[in-house]
Design brief:
The protein has about 675 residues and is α+β, with helices and mostly antiparallel strands. The protein is about 40% helix and about 15% strand.
Length: about 675
Amino acid sequence: MEIKDNLKNSLEREQGNATIGLLEKVYAELPPPGYNLIMHKQMISENTTCPDTVQENLWEHAKLNMLYGLYRVNGAIYNEQPKNAPYYAVKTGDVFQIRGSDLANMTLVFDSKGWIVMDVLTSSGVAEEAWREIVQKYLNDKPITAVIYSHTHVDHYGGVGGLKEFFADNCKIYAPKGFTEHAVSENIYVGTAMRRRGMYQYGSYLEPGVNGHVDCGLGTLLSTGKSSIIKPDIFVSDTENTTAVFNRGTCDELMLQFQYTPGTEAPAEMNVYIAESNVLFIAENCCGTLHNILTPRGAQVRDPLAWANYLDQTLQMFPDVESLCSSHNWPRFRNEEYKSYIELQMDMYRFINNATLHLANRGYTINEVGRILEKHVPQAIDDDWCCRGFYGTYNHNAKAVYQRYIGWYDGNPAHLNQLMPTERANRYVGTFKAENILHAANAAKDKAIVNKDTDSAAWAVELYDHLLNADKGVSDDIMDEVRAEYAKALQMLGYASEAATWRNMYLTAAQEVEDKDGFAPFPHEKYLNFEDETIKAMSLDMILQYMSIMLNFKQPITGSCLLLAVSLDDDQNEEYAAVWYRNNILYYRIVGQEDISNYNDDAVYTVKCSKLDFFKAFIEHNKSLLDQMVTAKSGDDVIAPSDFFTDDNFTRFTTDFPIMTRRDPF
């Protein structure tokens, strides 16, 4: 199939934008599973036309995201970039981007003494490789004078540990107000569930190729490896630290202006304007695609109305922008294009918000608003390449808005307290018989394939899902056929998806359905792994709240008691807490140094150690540390710390739980 005529003009515009300013076609390459584009490069080069197994718009979008390299942003449209061996010429205020070395871009601003780095990729290894093999090789070897975290998602701050050795002595880290709390809490409280779901969203375990992983929407690939966080030094809000001046009072003075945009694409986010070069870095508030109002990996629902309002504020604050770059995809150039682009993105989010609420007020439910809204997108928005659903979708986002305002319940009591999936499946099978359901599912799947009918495929998937989740009434022979045919239906939905995220989720689901022995992550990703710097950035409050989540409430601890007294001492930063157990709940109270002694005598266990050791002992279940550090009250009924603070009572969550198939009974 060919790209529809109404999209061709905007596609051609984006193809031009994505190639402007290329200096070197390079990327930071690490061995798998670190980051490796070789197979994606080969896939693109070997298929000059769109394969039958990839939706045609997504194929063109993947080709745009594969335009990796070192790019100049300001002045790039005029090709003003002489190369003076061994480096490209660089002056104060110049802006560059490293694209394609991770899901996100690394954006660089030169301040005459060194580099201001805006967003530092996902993992330390890729960030370090990008600096050594791209910045130092083609630009210069000046140090990093400042780091800017644009927002709270790990692909924008996680690589900072790999850049630490390149920091200048007085390097400062800037971040939006609320950054640390949101960045850390999102990745710990439900981090395991989000990591597992993220494996589906990003297609982490799909082989690159026309039958597998093609793209992620915001970029080609998400790097893996260790992520870290270094606490920011300076926090930006709408009233505090709204500008930053480098080399003040010199001829090389450089000023950055910040726009604080909380509650948009992330709970804490900000844009950065470089007046010297008339460049606006718009973080992830605008990209080359419709974004997610609720990301499939899971998060709090975002506010599309606030998002649209902040974009309107952007136009008012920065009317003279000539080059616009973001933390994903590619830039836009010329002032008129900047304005029209922001206006379309603003209209897109406001339309989703208002149209969904319009439908809700007419009685349409959460499972209806998405399919209705995606068919009625205004023509000007639908015809713009950067408003297409390559990452977020109108369908998914409409459901998110519905959930944000009135919740998951659709008002129909028949849906108020439905049976759990296995119980429902067993009743379907008991009522209609497995062979009859299978026959109907196969017929729907065959019709879907012949007619390229995704609605029939969706119906087949629903029927197969009942069979797969039943634990009685389905013979082994039927179950083998269910797995094989179910996977085909899921693959068809994946191949037909314009959204890279939906494609990845459908194809990963097909992979799990086909694998009788379960679908497990890489061994090194079985548990959430936190680097030392990330743990140090957590407050004791955060760690104890996570410990409270770990408590296995199904297995009550006998009685109620003052369970634990905690004293942490880290580089003159001391924290204290008392922890109670009552009614299958862990309570904690942060207290002062003068108060902790009042709890020590009554606590069943006491501990005094560093935050790192506390985390590794209690959260990561290091039995040796538990026995070394924790003092237990004497008594025959007191269990040794290495036996008490482990999986029987405090579950260490793993990322290998199934998504498609039955969970173990709780």
